[in-house]
Amino acid sequence: MRSEPARPLWRGRTLAVIGIIAFAFSLRSAVASLSPLIDHISDDFAMPAALIGLIGTAPPVCYAVFGILTPLFERRLGLERLTVLAIAIVAVGTVLRGFSADAVALLLATALIFAAVGVGNILLPPLVRKYFPDRIGLMTTLYSTTMAVATLTPPLLAVPVADAADWRISLGMWAVFAAVALIPWIAMLVRQRAATPDEGIEPPNPRVFGRMWRLPLAWALAIGFMVAGTLAYTSFAWLPQILVDIAGVTPAAAGALLALFAGMGLPASLLVPLLVTRYRATAVLFGVAVTTGFVGIGGLLLAPQAAPVLWVGLLGLAPLLFPLTLVLLGLRARTHEGSVALSGFVQSIGYGIVALFPIGIGLLHDATGSWTAPLLVLAVVVAAAIPAGIVVARPITIEDQYERRHGAW
């Protein structure tokens, strides 16, 4: 693969830097601001358990569906226009959610937000690939870390704001961040309209997304993404209960351990993209993810009460495959259309599989009356990263792989 000569991050790209970071923050803050307020919302209108379950499982489903649709939208609108549309929908959906009169309205507004976030998830890697081909690792670090911070911030502020004002204000205030994120992208659209088209961007090819199904590299990246998402979503759904049942910790301690699990993603988002781009540490990082995943799950299976903090901390390192996959979505494609198609394919397949696990793990636990079988299933999921890592570690792009197997791209 050819490496782009590096130039100063801000030179001629200030709006793009601000726009990508603000976009990433608005996507995650809108998603993470709801769940802490369920009790407050229930004081105003009924929140059936089934509806809460739908809200909990909706994100990966929406991300999968719109992962498939986003390349189609992008071919018609272009990256920047679709980015503006996605941010605007997040802002509108966040405001509507704050005005919800009943549970159905809340669900519909939340689904609207998740749909736009699903589009945004796909767009971020191609935006980095387009504007920062020489700084893919650094920009992936910045936006993935921003996403981690944006995931942690709303739960800290949601309840205090709701107590001081109202849950509607606590939910709706995150629309401000989406509105701010619109500014740099609208400015770039205005600038582009007056400028000549970028000759470095290939014309859209409607067959590119279909080619992903025939490429081992695309499937390997999807598997890596799936492993990270499965561990994360399953842990957020069930890890506290697992720890209470088998490790003998209190519910409060289980909540703190879940925070530890989530917090392990912050150093990973900071370090992983730079380790990949500077030191080509893809194979090593896959090995770290697999090893820590196996040891964490093995500890919970064999000696859960011995060192629950250690087991959860190690398990929390395994989803480092998430920022690893994000940076590889930019590195393993050499064209604009290839990057969009690869991002859409990997995230739609990955999230589509991930959506099955939180429910499936719960059903398996109910059927067996034990957490042994669910934990063994998670170990099998981690094992799937081994062959995926072997494929992904090879420094080849999807375009190169397609040309070797099927002819001209």
Automatic annotation (TrEMBL):
PROSITE patterns: MFS
Subcellular location, principal: membrane
Subcellular location: Cell membrane
Domain of life: Bacteria
Bilayer-spanning residue ranges: 48-70, 82-99, 105-124, 136-157, 169-190, 217-239, 251-276, 283-303, 309-329, 341-363, 375-396
InterPro entries per record: MFS (IPR011701), MFS_Cyanate_Porter (IPR052524), MFS_dom (IPR020846), MFS_trans_sf (IPR036259)
Domain annotation Major facilitator superfamily (MFS) profile: ranges: 14-409
Keyword Heme: no
GO terms under cellular component: plasma membrane
Signal peptide interval: none
Keywords on record: Membrane, Transmembrane, Transmembrane helix
Bilayer topology: Multi-pass membrane protein
GO molecular function term, any single one: transmembrane transporter activity
The protein, known as: MFS transporter, CP family, cyanate transporter
Organism: Microbacterium pygmaeum
